[in-house]
Amino acid sequence: MSSRLVLFLFSFLLLCSVNTFASKDKGDPKPKSKGTPSYQKRDDKIRVFVEGIRLDMDYMRRRMRYVDFVMEPAVADVQIIINERVSGSGGQVYSLMYNNITLDNLSNYTISATTLANDTYEEKRKKITDALELGLMPYVSQTKASEKLVLNYKGGDATEENENLKDPWNNWTFRGDVSGNMNLEESRKSYNYAFYARADKVTEDWKYRNNARRSVNTKKYTSEGEDYSSINTSTYASSSVVKSITSRWSAGAFGNLYNNNYQNMVYSISIKPAIEYNIFPWDISDRKVFTIAYYIGPEWMKYYEETIYDKLSESLWEQSLRLDLQLVQTWGEIQAGLNATNYLQDWSKNRITLDTNLSVRIVRGLSVRMGLRVENIHDQIYLAKGDVSLEDVLLNKVQLPSTFEIGADLGLRIQFGSIYNNIVNNRL
Fold first, then answer.
1. Confidence class of residue 6 from pLDDT cuts 50, 70 and 90?
2. Domain for residue 19, yes or no?
């Protein structure tokens, strides 16, 4: 797999994506209105199509009986796309984008809902549904169903609500995770465990991220009275600081520590300043992102065994150029990333990675999803010297040489029948 082919694939996808975006976003003519004037309330309920994240639709149907949830955006009055992003406290910020399809007196708009890192599933689904209902009120007000709604405010006065706004943690959040699993059979056993820790601070102007992870994977086999074992360990730690310079420019520094016996790496330490530019302002990143980022800095490496280049340790300078594209529209979603990395001392030691995900609604009832990951690999300077035994290969003890890696997936969905799905029935 040549680097020219990877670049061609990305260029083709990027061109198609930008052209599609331009035709959909800028020229998005408003669909011909099928609605009624605002002074005339319609008898039928508002038809709603929701997509973007996995939701508890049964819970929403029970609570929101004043609208009709439909299975296709083509028959909806409003299409709601929900995106989620991680907040500075480790929770989620959900952007709910309301796209008006049939009513001529309402424009498109976006509202948000925020959940906390320690919220339960019940608390999360309630907050999302509350926000969804609130955003639907302008639509529901166009129907006679609005005459049966009652709104209640349960909050206190402004003085009471603002008493405890001071943050004793100064926007810092901390998190620790421990996980493990095992699988036992008569002749095969596996044990895996991992530790993870994180400390972050996120504000409008600065973003500090620190995280560390340690994992151990052990496999044991017994065959004809002989015991075989494999232990793969990895450690990763990173620290970064990023400054928001303008609505499009950002700059930062990244430090990483890496250990992995599978890749013959005692340690790899790197320090890389970086700069990033977003074609679009960051305040609309829930709909569209197109970033160009450049990283450069030194990397120090030490190996368990002598490498194929007769090295037990070395220091090199590495640079990376990364492009990321994300478009979220009513017709689907496109995500694409191109990352090119090389060592400055030897430009032939490089890696180019193309990673894409595409979801498009072709026509009513037909949608397609596809993903592609292609890597052009020429930077495996860490490979151990000497022959690799069959036992090491079967036990997955060592990294094998490869000049490429390809992964792809494709999905097609066809749906037809009743457009309504308001009925809840959880019986057998």
1. low
2. no
d(CA 63, CA 56): 11
- 33 falls within a domain: no
CB atoms within 10 A of CB 185: 9
- Cβ atoms 325, 19 nearer than 8 A: no
For strand 188-202 and strand 366-377, is the pairing parallel, antiparallel, or unpaired? unpaired
In single-letter form, the type of residue at position 56 comes to D
pLDDT at 27 over 50: no
Using pLDDT thresholds of 50, 70 and 90, give the confidence band for residue 311.
Answer: very high
Mean pLDDT of 16-43: 51
**Calpha distance 60→122 (Å, rounded):** 12
User: Which range, 61-65, 87-91, 292-296, is most confident?
Assistant: 292-296
Instruction: Give the pairing type, strands 313-329 and 332-343.
Output: antiparallel
∠ CA 423-427-428, rounded to 5° = 135
- pLDDT(208) > 90: yes
Confidence of residue 426 (pLDDT cuts 50, 70, 90): low
Q: Are residues 274 and 366 in the same domain?
A: yes
Q: Are residues 88 and 196 in the same domain?
A: no
Strands 346-363 and 226-244: unpaired
- Same domain membership, residue 267 and residue 376: yes
State how many domains the chain has. 2
| Cα 49 to Cα 69: distance, rounded to the nearest angstrom | 6
Structure tokens of 334? 């496109």
Looking up residue 295, the CATH number of its domain turns out to be 2.40.160
Residues 216, 195: Cα–Cα separation, whole Å = 9
**CATH number of the domain bearing residue 109:** 3.30.160
Question: CA 62 to CA 349: how far, in whole Å?
Answer: 58
Domain assignment of residue 67, yes or no? yes
Domain span holding position 56 = 42-148
